[in-house]
From TrEMBL:
All residue ranges annotated as the ABC transporter domain in the record: 12-251
Localization: Cell membrane
PROSITE patterns, alphabetized: ABC_TRANSPORTER_2
UniProt keyword annotation of Transport present: yes
Keywords: Antibiotic resistance, ATP-binding, Nucleotide-binding, Transport
Organism: Streptomyces heliomycini
SUPFAM superfamilies documented for this protein: P-loop containing nucleoside triphosphate hydrolases
TM ranges: none
Protein name: ATP-binding cassette domain-containing protein
Record region (Disordered): 315-335
Amino acid sequence: MRDAFIELDGVEKVFDVWRRTGFMKRERHRVRAVDSLSFTVARGEMVGYIGPNGAGKSTTIKMLTGILTPSGGRLRVAGVDPSRERMRLAHRIGVVFGQRTTLWWDLPLIDSYRLMHRMYRIPAARYRENLERLTELLDLGGLLDVPVRQLSLGQRMRGDIAAALLHDPEVLYLDEPTIGLDVVSRTRVRDFLRRLNAERATTVLLTTHDLRDIEQLCSRVMVIDHGRLVYDGALAGLHEAGESERTLVVDLERELPPIEAPAPARVVRVEGPRQWLAFPASASAAELVAKVAARYPLVDLSVREPDIEAVIARMLGPSGGAPEPPQERAGRTPS
């Protein structure tokens, strides 16, 4: 058994929520955000931690960092209780919240890093070495003197990741680090995280709504729903459990009858010269693309990944919580 760096055993988190029931009257309700959660993450693992909005993902991360205290159960990070020894643990962890920044809004990026240099008491030589390495790997060279408020979302996110790693943390918590990023920025962030994990053996716990983040970075995925762990294993197993499907979008030169796709692929939608073909997410798209291209006049095609909440909803069945539509997620704070 490998060194268990993160350990949760029967962890619970309950919030008291007051609701108005009448004039000058309120009633207390208990909301169980995390319910008997147990898992371990080995040192050096990169694990995807996913689930629908309200599942308890961010609550878990806040307990792992010591921001919140568990209502019950046992929690350890590197052998330390985060809520009891938060300051001691702070030097061993890094945190990036995709919709919040740890950078000072009106200061140039380099000034935020200098402040963190002093806050974490990073030795001067180590700080200079880390800053130079992170600046190069995250392509921040031309941004260090730019005020944070003038950075694009992708630039700020790369700046936040660098800030979280200046003190060489042993574990990195990433809460939606690619939300709202363009394709180029997503690729840069993913490439950097892959290299960080390979070269420095940094333990990474990643929450995201984008299955491509998980597919490209994580060998293991955990699914949480209503505060409970409902799946822990490989992404392929999640696709099989949820019977998820990818979609091949085909643009033809002209309008044609539905494509005769090899089973188990099937046409699910036709609009003029554009057709949508669904096929199992665990299957390779290459064979299907080759057969369609050999028989039909193509202009363009693309592969769309399954929506992560739809996969979870199908895996849980009728008893699972219904996911929110994708368009309702954009402005919401992830759970």
